[in-house]
Structures are given as structure tokens and as C-alpha cells.
């Protein structure tokens, strides 16, 4: 058996190769899925709903496989970040889920670098450890990994949601009778035959413009932005929900200023007038030009 340090070094190199390969496979599968979605939209537009329902199952299976590869990539990154914990003879509790999930799921993928990583992990922790991971006898394999590896036909509701999302994305009116507001619109310069002309609304008056709320994108944008999560088989149309702003309460100083009585305000005004009178008595007013001329004439006499 090879020394532990040499095996850990090999695992570290193989993890980097596996991460790079997993990302490339995900990008390739995503590009193929886009082409398949476009083909599904054409089938829906042609009215071939039954054919679209059968073929969309391949898209769902491809999305599930892509999500599985994403999970395994995260586990590889976790092991790469905690390679120091691999030096021990026994598997650390913080790495057990990641290690056993990779051993359990790697044979079901076509990524050779991930399978070689699995072989090194089996060599590191022994066949008994690998047998427990393959059978999941101790329940340490991640539940989401087991769920992605299940081979079963997709739920009919999930198929319908996929078809609706594809139709909405590519502007196809499906099911018939439902509007597609988010779909692409026809060019105004070349309207199709029988297309209705949009009725223009009356212009807003001055009073309505003054009451109107300015658009949110007016002025400088915030450097902090929240990107919406990517759709998955568990959530086809994700949405971003921001928390409500906190209730701001006035501090004790501001509350004390607001509770100031009229008598205290009158006293402060009296003090100001009194101090102003003293200033005028000491400094006096600035004489104008005519008064200065009279003073010079009196001095000459």
C-alpha cells in the first residue's frame, strides 16, 4: 500500500482535473438542452403535443444529470479545500458525506476523471468503507444525490410545467387560449395579416405626471445586485424574494426634541433677543455715507 501522503497528493491532482472536466460537461449539456428546447417549441407550435410530451422527458433527464454533476463538483471542491483532513487514516466526519457520495455516484457518470478520483478514495479508505458507501448502509450518502440517481418516469405535472415554460420562453401560444405576454412580439414595421392594431392610450396630464412614481432604474444603480437562481427540476420558475425594510424608530434625542414645550421655545427666543440686543448695544450700527460726511464736517470746524 502506498504511503498516505502520496495518495493524498494524487487525490488533490485528480480532484482538480475532475472539477475542470465536470464544468466542461455541464456547459456542453446546457448547450444541447437549449437546442432541444427550441425543437420542443417548434413541435408545440405545429400542434404535435404528444410527440413533445415524449421528447421532453429527455430534457428532464438531461437536466437531472446536469444537476447531479453540479452537486458532485461541489463535493470535489469541498475535498480540495479540506485536503489537510485527508491525511488521517480514518475518514473525517466533515468529509464523510462528500467522500461517500462521490464513491456512490461516480460509476453512474461518464466522467473518467471523477471515476479515477473514486478509485483513489477507495484505495485510501479501504474496500469495506467503499462497500458501505455503495450500499448506503449507514445513510451517509447525500439524499439529493440518491434522488438524482433514481430511474423513474417524470411526473406528468413536471412534464406540463416544462412544456409551459418552453412555450413561454419561445412565445408559443400553448395551451391554446392562454396569452404569452413574455414571448417575442412581431415587428411593427411588417405586421402580419389579420394582426390587430394596438390602441394608444391618452397622454397623461400635468397633475398625473406630478403624482407619478419615478422609475426604479432612474439615477445611479446600486453596486449590490441579487441574481435570480437558475431554474431546476425542483423549481422550474424561481423567483427572488427580498425581505421587507426594517421599521425605523426615532432615537431618544429626537424624541426629546419633538416633545419640547412652547414655554421652553419662548424662553430660548427671549434669550436670543436679549443676546442680540447686547450685541447691538456694544457694537452699534454701521454708519452710512451721509452720517460720515456730517462727522467730518464737524471735525473741520
Describe, in plain words, how this protein is organized in 3D:
It is built from eleven helices and no strands. With about 300 residues, the chain is mostly helical. α2 packs across α3 and α2 runs antiparallel to α6. About 10% of the residues have low confidence.
In short:
This protein is mainly alpha-helical and 301 residues long. The protein has eleven helices and no strands. About 9% of the residues have low confidence.
Task: Give the helices and strands, then pairings.
Blueprint: H1 4-45, H2 49-81, H3 96-105, H4 112-125, H5 127-135, H6 143-149, H7 156-169, H8 206-211, H9 252-258, H10 262-283, H11 289-300
Helix pairs in contact: 1-2, 1-4, 2-3, 2-6, 2-7, 3-5, 4-5
Note the main attributes of this structure.
mainly alpha; 301 residues
How many E-type strands? 0
Question: What gross morphology would you assign?
Answer: flat
Biggest sheet layout: none
Oligomer: single chain
Mean pLDDT: 78
* SSE topology string: HHHHHHHHHHH
Q: Calculate the terminal CA-CA distance, rounded to whole Å.
A: 125 Å
The share of residues in helices is 55-70%
Please compute the radius of gyration using only Cα atoms.
37 Å
Task: Indicate the low-confidence ranges by residue numbers.
Answer: 180-199, 276-283
Quote the beta fraction.
under 5%
Going by helix content, strand content and strand pairing, the class is mainly alpha
> What is the tally of helical segments?
11
Amino acid at each position: 500500500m502506498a504511503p498516505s501522503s502520496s495518495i493524498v497528493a494524487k487525490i488533490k491532482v485528480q480532484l482538480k482535473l475532475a472539477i475542470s472536466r465536470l464544468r466542461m460537461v455541464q456547459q456542453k449539456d446546457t448547450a444541447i438542452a437549449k437546442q432541444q428546447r427550441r425543437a420542443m417549441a417548434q413541435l408545440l407550435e405545429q400542434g404535435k403535443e404528444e410527440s413533445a410530451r415524449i421528447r421532453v422527458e429527455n430534457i428532464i433527464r438531461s437536466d437531472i444529470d446536469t444537476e447531479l454533476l453540479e452537486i458532485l463538483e461541489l463535493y470535489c471542491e469541498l475535498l480540495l479545500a479540506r485536503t489537510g483532513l485527508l491525511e488521517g487514516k480514518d475518514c473525517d466526519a466533515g468529509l464523510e458525506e462528500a467522500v461517500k457520495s462521490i464513491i456512490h455516484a461516480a460509476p453512474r457518470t461518464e466522467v473518467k476523471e471523477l471515476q479515477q478520483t473514486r478509485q483513489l478514495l477507495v484505495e485510501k479508505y479501504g474496500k469495506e468503507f467503499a462497500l458501505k458507501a455503495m450500499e448506503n448502509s449507514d445513510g451517509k450518502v447525500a439524499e439529493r444525490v440518491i434522488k438524482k440517481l433514481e430511474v423513474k418516469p417524470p411526473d406528468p405535472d413536471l412534464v406540463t410545467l416544462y412544456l409551459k415554460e418552453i412555450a413561454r420562453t419561445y412565445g408559443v401560444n400553448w395551451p391554446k387560449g392562454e396569452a404569452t405576454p413574455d414571448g417575442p412580439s412581431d415587428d411593427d414595421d411588417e405586421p402580419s395579416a389579420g394582426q390587430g392594431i394596438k390602441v394608444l392610450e391618452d397622454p397623461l396630464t400635468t397633475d398625473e405626471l406630478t403624482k407619478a412614481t419615478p422609475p426604479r432604474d432612474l439615477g445611479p444603480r446600486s453596486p449590490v445586485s441579487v441574481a435570480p437562481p437558475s431554474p431546476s427540476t425542483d423549481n422550474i420558475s424561481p423567483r427572488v424574494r427580498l425581505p421587507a425594510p426594517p421599521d425605523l424608530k426615532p432615537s431618544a434625542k429626537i424624541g426629546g426634541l419633538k416633545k419640547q414645550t412652547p414655554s421652553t421655545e419662548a424662553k430660548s427666543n427671549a434669550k436670543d433677543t436679549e443676546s442680540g440686543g447686547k450685541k447691538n448695544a456694544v457694537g452699534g450700527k454701521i454708519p452710512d455715507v451721509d452720517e460720515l460726511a456730517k462727522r467730518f464736517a464737524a471735525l473741520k470746524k
